[in-house]
Amino acid sequence: MDPIKIALSVASTAASAASAVAQGNAQARAFEWNAQVNDRNAQAADAAGEQLYHTEKVKIEKFRDEFEKLNASTSQGFRYNGWMADGDTPLLVALANASEADEEIQTMDYNARVGQAELEEEGVQQRMEADLKRMYADNARKAGMFKAGQSLLSGGSDMYMISNYAMG
Description:
By secondary structure, the chain is mainly α. The protein has helices at residues 3-80, 88-167.
């Protein structure tokens, strides 16, 4: 049995096994990196959802303040023209304005909640994607180990064949 052939076969088998493990680990690191990116995107979506909701709440308060000014100005106009504020036309105008303002506030609040929920759902999707990438990373590591085992078994089989051929 030629010792050079044996040494080359052992080296080739070891190199194949090491390469398989390294490839599996490299793929796993790439999946882990992508999972971290998804986690970061999830946090950003959560923060954006909170920011959107609070920004819209501020807009609602500003709208209420502007409505109060409009309402006061309208009442002042009616009084200036000699109309009683609790009379027919001024009362109907005030009630219509208040109803329209309430509808606008409800719409703004609803839209803020929907926008926040959409961003929260984006965060959930990003977390699910991160979990999936971590699973892929684990599978890549395992695949690398299995390929390494396959290389070692194949190398052992080759060694057996060489030794049988040399003796035969």
